[in-house]
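Example 474, ligand pyridoxal-5'-phosphate.
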Amino acid sequence: MDDHRKELLKNLPKIDEMMLLLERGERLAGVPRELVKEACRSVVEEIRGRILADKGKNGELCLPMEEEAADRAARIVEGFGAYRLRRVINATGVILHTNLGRAPLCREAIERIIEVARGYSNLEYNLEKGERGLRYDHVRELLCALSGAEDALVVNNNAAAVLLVLNALAEGREAIVSRGELIEIGGEFRIPEVMMKSGARLKEVGTTNRTRLADYEQAIGPETGLILKVHTSNFRIMGFTEAADLSSLVNLGKKHGLPVMDDLGSGCFIELDSYGLEREPTVRDTLATGVDVVTFSGDKLLGGPQAGIILGKRETLERIRKNPLNRALRIDKLTLAALEATLVKYLRPEEALSDIRVLRALTEPLADVKKRAKRLAAMLRRALPEGLNISIINGTSMAGGGSLPTREIPTVLVGVRATTLSAAALEERLRQWETPIIARVADEMVLFDPRTLDREEFTAIRDALRALLANEMG
Ligand SMILES: *Cc1c(COP(=O)(O)O)cnc(C)c1O
């Protein structure tokens, strides 16, 4: 090691002196000493690392004074206090964007969360009887009324629901599934793997593209515990295909005394095909087949909080409720409050369609989207006549979240070109804005899809672009 670097290493800022400086100031008042010291240590380590790594041009290296090192440490500590989980503006047109938190909650759901979180609640307390109650009871009646199910249970998410049902109904036994339904949803959720973790044994039948009722029937034996149907939510096999429908599987289950489960994935209470969307059987249609149990997410087409909803026959649900995994996968009170409020919306489907944001986005008529695109374009033109080139372009939105994968949802986009910045640079700056704005880039333009934006977010986009381009120019 050369002398210059040895000299630098000997004179690194002293942690004790940094601590003295920080303790004299008000900046980190009240922050535990150990936490501040750790930050000081990491600053010194970082400087040491840079000295050791900097080969050849060490003549240019110099050490920060204690004041500067202490300031860096203070900034690290202050950084801990800055929220990292933040609200973002989704201009991508992907309505159920799993990376962006899927469904935004309706106003009432948010209000219920605040109300229930603020104090104590009757989460597991029966107010009439003055004794212990069940947390599921708050949504059970509502779910049954909306779906026609005999009984209902909710857990943390749909992956948990599938795991729990498989474990409760088929642990140590075989669960029969079509080869065409052995799907991966993303985020490590693969049917064969979840099946293994549940303790059920996978019994594959049929082929990737064709599975007949007879394939299921032939696979039934003394080891069989369950017949499982899985909604192939995020892909479609086209062409020469065949699948056994749920009703015939239900009959087959009855004949052999086996429960039948349908993992619906999205689960929807309102028919969406009249809005030009793909035909998805509603939860009520599915249960009307007599299926023993269905599972679906709370934050996909339902448009509520993350949750796994389990509906079905009373005796089947009783078995599932008593399973010890249920306790481990249980839903928390804030989610429950939001779920209840979201479900109440569905008592009046018109209200659900207008107040639940993912439903509104999915069903908004193209003419209305176009009107709003023009409004956004006009707002931007008015605010930034010099800095932007603005166009209106036809495009497509996507349902996302592994829902309605094949139907393209037509939309009208606002395309923005900045005179002083490339599209990639503009996209990056918007993404790193105070309230980050996530947009697509194509053809050297940043694209904003009004389908996933509301009025207040239009204003936020305008203000961000204005401030950002003003920084850029001066
Ligand atoms: C999305 C999905 C799941 C997982 O649901 P999460 O709520 O994300 O846990 C399971 N099965 C199917 C068919 C799905 O579409």
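Summary: The radius of gyration is 28 Å.
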